[in-house]
Amino acid sequence: MEPSIACGVAARWLAAARKAGMPGGRLPESCRPTNREEALEIQRGVRMLLDNPVGGWKCSVPGPDVAAAPIYSSTIHTESPCPIIPSVANARVEPEIGFVLSQDLAP
């Protein structure tokens, strides 16, 4: 699926920030998603641009505003100690709890 122009701009903006290791501000108004489908389209575009396999997904609890985002394989660390990314006087930490399922979930 070819992304819309606005979604393509957003995906390139987010992928560039991620590759630079820099947090980005809000997306420019002209390319912010206005619905879930556009947000997912932007995520697909970022995944394609990064060429980084998805190792897992993080998601909110089920509900009307469910959200999901990929966790890239290169950012998954299972060893101890795990790398810490310093940011001024703080450390950026985003722990995720993962589960390995014995079989696929139903669609």
Q: Count of helices?
A: 2
What is the H/E order?
A: HHEEEE
**Portion in strands:** 15-25%
Rounded average pLDDT: 84
Radius of gyration: 16 Å
Q: How are the strands of the biggest sheet laid out side by side?
A: 1-2
Number of strands: 4
Q: How does this model look, in words?
A:
Helix content is 29%, strand content 16%. It has 107 residues and is an alpha+beta fold. Strands 1-2 form a two-stranded antiparallel ribbon. A two-stranded antiparallel sheet has the order 3-4. Helix 1 packs across helix 2. It is globular, with a radius of gyration of 16 Å. The mean pLDDT is 84.
List keywords for this structure.
107 residues, alpha+beta, two-stranded antiparallel ribbon, two-stranded antiparallel sheet, 4 strands
Outline of the structure:
With 107 residues, this protein is of the alpha+beta class.
List the helices and strands and how they pair.
Blueprint: H1 5-20, H2 36-50, E1 54-59, E2 68-72, E3 85-87, E4 90-92
Helix pairs in contact: 1-2
